[in-house]
Amino acid sequence: MPDKKVGYFGIGGKLAMLTVLFCSPFILLDVFSLVNLPWPPYFPAERRNIFGFVMIGCGVACLIASAIQHSKFFPKDKLCTSGVYYWCQHPIYSAWILFLIPGFVVIFGRTWLLLICPFLTALALKLLISEEEKDLTRMFGDDYLIYKASTPMIVPLFKIFKRPPKNIHPTSSDNICSKKGSTTKHSKGETTEFRHKGKKK
């Protein structure tokens, strides 16, 4: 029986639904002006709009880069750890949590209370991500475990604090992309085609 393959969109659909569920009460408080927590005077609408559009622009750029890599490696059952995936495990989710949601909140939110929404999305991700990680571990084994242990889940800055575990050994060193059942060595940033070899009789 073949390994279960993680879906193309991962837990994206479930994450969106749980995020809406978590954030809805705060959005309703903002829409109906049920709380009086205005933005501080030193952060007027003009500054918020500039800041928000910059955040959204960064998020869209991250989404595009992630989608290009994901669409390239996913159909080939490859584990991609280069490019934006070098800096965090889930750059698509990261783009929403770190850039897009905060950007929309800053532009359209009437109150700073909505800044809680990115944190609630991160909480939803934490609750759901184990399902995706189990499938990836089943597909890629130790290669994924090392990548997971040495790469931040969401915040790229934390990359400098992460180190590969000593008790897990990769199938090959500097494994940037891996295919189920086979690996290869190459320098950081390169991509390599993987082929299964038949057993010698």
Automatic annotation (TrEMBL):
Determine if Transferase is one of this entry's keywords. Answer: yes
Superkingdom of this protein's organism: Eukaryota
Q: What keyword terms does UniProt attach to this protein?
A: Endoplasmic reticulum, Membrane, Methyltransferase, S-adenosyl-L-methionine, Transferase, Transmembrane, Transmembrane helix
Q: Which residues cross the membrane?
A: 7-29, 49-68, 84-105
Q: Which GO terms describe its biological process?
A: methylation
- InterPro entries, sorted: ICMT_MeTrfase (IPR007269)
| GO function terms (MF aspect) | methyltransferase activity
| Signal peptide from the UniProt entry | none
The entry's localization annotation reads:
Endoplasmic reticulum membrane; Membrane
- What is its EC class? transferase
The family note in this entry says:
Belongs to the class VI-like SAM-binding methyltransferase superfamily. Isoprenylcysteine carboxyl methyltransferase family.
Q: What is this protein called?
A: Protein-S-isoprenylcysteine O-methyltransferase
Species the sequence originates in: Aduncisulcus paluster
